[in-house]
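Assess this one:
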Amino acid sequence: MAKVAFLGLGVMGYPMAGHLQKKGGHQVTVYNRSASKSQQWVGEYGGKSAATPREAASGAELVMICVGNDDDVRSVVYGDSGALAGMKAGAILVDHTTASADLARELHAKCKEAGIGFVDAPVSGGQAGAVNGQLGIMCGGEDAVFARAKPVLDIYAKSCVQIGGPGAGQLCKMVNQIAIAGLLQGLSEALNFARKAGLDLEKVIAVISKGAAQSWQMENRWKAMNEVKFDGFGFAVDWMRKDLGICLDEAERNGARLPATALIDQFYKNVQQRGGGRWDTSSLMYLLAKD
């Protein structure tokens, strides 16, 4: 049983921290920018809440972060009230935020100076994966540090893999988001074509989902796409645009060509402009079905 801190109780972090406390049996202290969310979590799972990241991280063997973006991560890690100020040498900081590889390398260097291990560990699987403890976790970091962190990460993971050194987890998550964006655009066009052709979409899906076109997105999103209703569930367009911006910035540096990704990013911008910033990413279908 480890003493663990979890910083950030959004739709992903809230159940992830809950698994550590309830399923893993760890001693968990949580921090959230909105204190009422921390209190709600303690009421549901037990454990403790803290007023600052530093207080939550004090004495913890592992500190997990799951917040919004690079700036949010820095806000809970650095400064007098930040997690690093409360962490002891030998502890490990794990960042589950989807952020830049540059930030991961920066955090690794800062942690190393303080004798603290670091793992960048973005996740895939959405809210359902977090709730069910079935996330894919892509990790970057030093071998020995990852080996120590993995048994705890496995509590809410379906798969937890070290991809490489610091930043490799974030780069892998970029690969994931590029693939999903292209897949969802292709699926939107295919389903809209079937609708225009007057086909029974349920029968179409029953057939093609058993062949080479099968995907998680197809099986879990085709009904919403057919109904053109995208609010109240899933991964928000606003967050996908943040992620694709990270991908496009990294591609600018490493020379990778992402012409389709850049185009789909603009499609998502169009969805935002139509009021769909909080819609699920399958809402690319909206641009086809409503035009």
